[in-house]
Amino acid sequence: MMNLLTDVDFVQPTRNFSLAYIILDSLFIVGFVTLLFLNKKRITALWSLAGGILYFIVDFGIFYAALNSRAIYSYAFSSPDSTALLDATGTGLVLLWMSLSYGITNFAFIWLWLSKDKHALEYTALIVVFWICCPLISSFINNLAPDIICFQTTRGTDKYHGVMGLIMLVGYFIVIIMNILNKKGERIPIVRLFVIGFLVQFLWEASLLVFGIRSQNYGGDFYRQIMTLLQDSLVETNLGLPYIYFIHKAVTDRYNDDLTSKNLSRN
């Protein structure tokens, strides 16, 4: 598909989703959050929902409204070169779905692994397996209904990756200095934070790339595809891990995942 932004960045994340993909993904997200609540992982569920809301504020409020770095186009699956720019309402609805989808799964992934939850691997496997299978199922549906509506989301990164880098630098600088100065107390697991932050972004970015959803506007430029994958994975979720660590510690020191007080459970 042709490049749709006039101001082209070397790192220009794009995704192409059909309506079938959006519906399947939405059903999965509802089921996933319900599963968390049913298993009494209420703090994890609420944190995940907060992540979806935060992603929407950033994606729509900052990337789209403030920086004008986000654009979304619609087209029929059978006519990928015939596109129409979505208005603010349409863009908002698509970004709301995207934000809730990746915000919920990413924040759940982070919280479960920071908590060393005994089923963190199973929940992660559930998410990753769905990320693998959803493009395959939606592609099958797309071929059955070639006039189905599709969306291309694209954004430039030159306007904010520098700010993200600064936020990441400050966060990791804080935890590194705290570890250096803290001679006797509990050390912050810096490597663990970095690995979690990297893998959260990398797993879904890689699945999108492998199944043809990510970076269709790169014209087969493999180097550019890999650089986009690595830059996003190293920075875009990782920047928040030091801050999330402190939030996680403050919450889990006082509450169990089912929202009961740890002080009451000790008594």
Summarize the structure.
The protein has 267 residues and is of the alpha+beta class.
Question: How would the blueprint of this fold be written?
Answer:
Blueprint (H helix, E strand, L loop, with lengths): L13 E5 H20 L3 H25 L3 E7 L2 E7 L2 H27 L5 H25 L4 E7 L5 H21 L8 H21 L11 H14 L5 H12 L9 H5 L1
Antiparallel strand pairs: 1-4, 2-3, 2-4
Helix pairs in contact: 1-2, 1-3, 1-4, 2-3, 3-4, 3-6, 4-6, 6-7
Would you mind describing this structure in some detail?
The N terminus is likely disordered. The chain has a four-stranded antiparallel β-sheet with strand order 1-4-2-3. Helix 1 packs antiparallel against helix 4, helix 2 runs antiparallel to helix 3 and helix 4 runs parallel beside helix 6. The protein is 64% helix and 10% strand. The chain has nine helices and four strands; from the N terminus they run βααββααβααααα. Strand 2 and strand 3 form a beta hairpin. The chain is of the alpha+beta class and 267 residues long.
Per DSSP E runs of 2 or more residues, the count of β-strands stands at 4
Strand order of the largest sheet: 1-4-2-3
- Shape summary: globular
How far the N terminus sits from the C terminus, by CA atoms, comes to 62 Å
Q: Helicity, in percent?
A: 55-70%
SSE order:
EHHEEHHEHHHHH
Summed over residues and divided by their number, the pLDDT gives a mean of: 89
| Percent in strands | 5-15%
- Biggest sheet, open or closed, and with what strands and sense? 4 strands, antiparallel
* Low-pLDDT segments: 1-8
Tally the helices: 9
Oligomer: single chain
Q: Whole-number radius of gyration?
A: 20 Å
Report the structural category.
alpha+beta
